[in-house]
Amino acid sequence: MDAATDGNYETLEIRNGGNIVSDFHYCRKKHLGMRYIIPPPYTRTLGPRFFLPASKPFRRGQKIRNIVAELIRKLPKYDHLKIRLDPSDDSAFAFSICGLQIRNEFTFRIAPDVTPGVVLEQCDQKTRNLIRSASQKLEVTQSADIEAFIRMSLVDQSASENRHDFATMAKLFEACLRHDRACVISAYDEKKKQVSSSVLIWDEKNLYYWLSARDRNASIPGANMLLIWEALKLASAKALTFDFDSFASVGTAKMLASFGQPPVLRPHVIGASVRYEWERAANATLMSLRDYWKRKIVA
Length: 299
Prior knowledge:
By secondary structure, this protein is α+β, with helices and mostly antiparallel strands. The chain is built from 10 helices and 12 strands. Helix content is 40%, strand content 28%.
């Protein structure tokens, strides 16, 4: 959290009998008068943590519902709230009955007991062929050099178009690296030219395909798929679940789906004030009118 926010985050603790039973880390910001409660930069999932003794499913669920209700009451006032839950998080229902919206994002996961060989068999044939072909033409290296990824990212998107906060990214990577939980993998062609790069981070359960970039003009296809393949092999070697870490476009979603794994829900908790909803509706109306008049003028 310190690396992602420079220490500018808040923690809400829920106690029972003097003992902490849950905590939740979050960031606050203001923009154009709107108050936001949001996850820190580059944080894919960050919900409340629960410190509960073992109990029957009903009793655990009841405790989580009570904790979440208290957490929502104690949060600062906001116009927009976003909490991204891990697929294994069991608090989405509790948030929903507190009146918050649940919107589902998707990711793909491979359990540690599923071998890379089985995954390769489950891949679409085209994906399987691309991985095999790329592995014969590209060399994959592993390093602790975040600059290798940054260079590739600036090839993928120029500095004027690139939206990455490289300073924050580097701080997060270095924080993970200090615990031996991060690496950069890169693919090079026969001329030793870098054509693709990815950043992997992991915890005690999951290895995440956190960030990726490529040279879109590279002549050898399948570089990204090869790096995913190498990443899932690393996860298997570490006995960790491999998480593809979602996607940002329809094309990427279809590419990840070609690895043959079922999509996994990653719930988002959304809260919004009436003012926020009105502003969104007004902006949507203005954009629709703008597009309408553009089409009218062209016609």
